[in-house]
Specification:
single chain, 64% helix
């Protein structure tokens, strides 16, 4: 069962930091109100225009996690849309305010408490429309924003006001700011991975690796813009904010469109996957269940985000080759067919996938799902094992999941990869001993529970 301790620690730290900063700001007053208002507006606008919750069918919702409801691959910055930082303008504005030491040549006097207070209030204000529409988790996003701004401010503001950076100027000072921002982004990646791990139960290591891989992308743009904004405001004043925020705002709008395109593409793949169900070749919801459980197994095995996407699409369309059959396979159960027939259906499915434009990697996984496992890519091994498990537990009694796992273990000598079967057992066991299947409302017949640790 997933531990909630890191989640409680992070949320408690963010809440204490925000509450303490608010009290300190109320007691000491708001310094340089126009500056605070300008940066607050910048952060709020950045939060307002960030992409919404993941659109379209989410295969991960077919298999609930142990104690946190459905998996929302987005702690999304984290996850689902593939956008690590969904609000780069808000992030850059918050970090630049934390690094602001001068305004138009005059030293500033705001400290850590005011930075955290302004950023928290602006981020919360910008998230109000999302809260009203119920668009995805907001609390963890606020935790992330508060901790990142607080970390940067703690590293910079006290030292700056004590004159520690007085001898720094020119390129050296700019590099100092960039170094602080890079350190902040790295720490932010750890926070995001921890939040995603607690919310989904997915392994922390692969989540952190995916976050770190995204740092050279949008993370570098956030770092550069945050540093440039702080330096420009120090020289020319608040007029620098709209000038330097425009490029990042355009980037954020492009990310929003990219997220919409990805959601539409995912919907198209899911619609194609339903063709076998509509035609009566496979049971309703089978492809979604295989995709959901397959992604959980893939995460347990440490697959990176790009391979998980390929795995998801291949799992959704793994049975599409059955449309070429004259006589449907009973209940669409291909796992018990002769090896030659399985390969023929897989090759036909791969040919169909290639014509859909889903990509050669997805087609290769579909084509090779019936090959001997030593010759298969990891994604094909996962699809084969999970599909067989789903077929074996279908219409089974209370002992069906355990029986299915035992059959898969006995087949690891030639048909099923042992490491994938072991990962499947861990995934089912980690769900509180419950390898749940969705009820009729989720497209699946009934609910089966795996007793024991598998």
């Amino acid at each position: 069962m997933t531990s909630r301790f890191p989640l409680l620690v992070l949320r408690s730290a963010a809440a204490l930091l925000a509450a303490g900063s608010l009290l300190a700001t109320l007691a000491g007053g708001l310094d340089a109100r126009p500056t605070a208002l300008a940066f607050g507006v910048l952060v709020a606008v950045g939060e307002l225009i960030r992409p919404g919750a993941r659109l379209g069918p989410d295969p991960t919702t077919a298999y609930p996690t142990a104690s946190h409801g459905t998996a929302s691959h987005g702690t999304q910055g984290t996850t689902g849309s593939g956008l690590r930082e969904a609000a780069p303008l808000g992030a850059a504005g918050a970090l630049s305010y934390a690094l602001l030491g001068e305004h138009a040549g005059q030293p500033t006097h705001h400290g850590v408490a005011q930075v955290v207070c302004v950023v928290a209030a602006a981020a919360l204000l910008g998230s109000v429309p999302r809260l009203a529409r119920g668009q995805g988790p907001v609390l963890d996003h606020l935790v992330r924003r508060i901790l990142a701004a607080g970390f940067t401010a703690v590293c910079f503001q006290p030292l700056y006001h004590r004159g520690f950076f007085d001898g720094w100027s020119g390129p050296a000072y700019a590099l100092l700011l960039l170094a602080l921002l890079v350190l902040t982004v790295l720490c932010d990646a750890v926070v995001v991975a921890a939040l995603a791990h607690c919310a989904t139960g997915w392994p922390f290591g692969p989540l952190l690796r995916d976050e770190l891989r995204a740092v050279p992308g949008i993370g570098s743009a956030v770092c550069a813009t945050g540093a440039v904004m702080a330096l420009a405001v120090a020289v020319v004043g608040l007029w620098a904010l709209p000038v330097f925020s425009v490029p990042l705002m355009l980037t954020q709008l492009s990310l929003r469109r990219y997220a919409a395109v990805r959601a539409t593409y995912r919907q198209t793949i899911a619609s194609l996957a339903r063709a076998t169900e509509i035609a009566g070749y496979t049971p309703a919801g089978h492809a979604r269940r295989v995709a959901a459980l397959g992604q959980a197994v893939g995460r347990d095995l440490g697959l990176p985000e790009a391979e998980l996407t390929v795995l998801e699409y291949a799992a959704l369309m793994h049975d599409i080759g059955q449309l070429s059959l004259v006589d449907p396979v009973p209940a669409g159960a291909t796992a018990d067919l002769p090896a030659a027939e399985q390969r023929r259906i897989a090759l036909l499915g791969g040919a169909v996938v290639r014509r859909t434009g889903a990509g050669p990697q997805v087609a290769a996984v579909v084509e090779r799902q019936a090959d001997p496992y030593p010759e298969q890519p990891v994604a094909a091994r996962i699809v084969r094992v999970v599909n067989a498990y789903e077929e074996k537990v279908r219409d089974a009694g209370p002992g069906g999941p355990l029986t299915a796992l035992e059959e898969l273990r006995l087949g690891t000598g030639g048909a099923y990869a042992p490491e994938v079967v072991a990962a499947l057992a861990r995934v089912l066991g980690n769900r509180g001993g419950g390898g749940q299947r969705p009820g009729p409302g989720a497209g699946g017949p009934g609910c089966l529970t795996l007793a024991g640790g598998g």
